[in-house]
Amino acid sequence: MECRVSWLGNGGMAFSAETGSGHLVNMDGPPEAGGQNSAPRPMELILAGTGGCSAFDVVLILQRAKQAISACDVKLTAERAEVEPKVFTKINLHFTVTGKDLERAKVERAVKLSHEKYCSATSMLAKTAEITYSIDIVSE
């Protein structure tokens, strides 16, 4: 896996990342750090990637379990250390899974499997952060 990050210059703190799969993602810092708030912060992208990684697992596991899932949303809430490096210290992933006749046990199993076995992002972040999750199921 590769990624190339380039500073966009112009006296700011904006960067562009080109992923190994050829996609571009911009990042920027807050004005108080010299940025212009023109794009997500790098740490926000880590959090977003974590949600995407886990949601991917949950959807795939539920599809394979023949569950009629129509939506999966994850709200991530995180706390960071007070001092540098300001690593994540707590992260909660709140899953809202929507579908027809979803079996609670299968949804809980999917989230647990992602959390404990499959999600590379939560596995890495668990080295510094207490990671928890919660689940809401919405019936159609």
From TrEMBL:
<dbReference type="InterPro" id="IPR036102">
    <property type="entry name" value="OsmC/Ohrsf"/>
</dbReference>
<dbReference type="Pfam" id="PF02566">
    <property type="entry name" value="OsmC"/>
</dbReference>
<protein>
    <submittedName>
        <fullName>Peroxiredoxin</fullName>
    </submittedName>
</protein>
<dbReference type="InterPro" id="IPR015946">
    <property type="entry name" value="KH_dom-like_a/b"/>
</dbReference>
<dbReference type="InterPro" id="IPR003718">
    <property type="entry name" value="OsmC/Ohr_fam"/>
</dbReference>
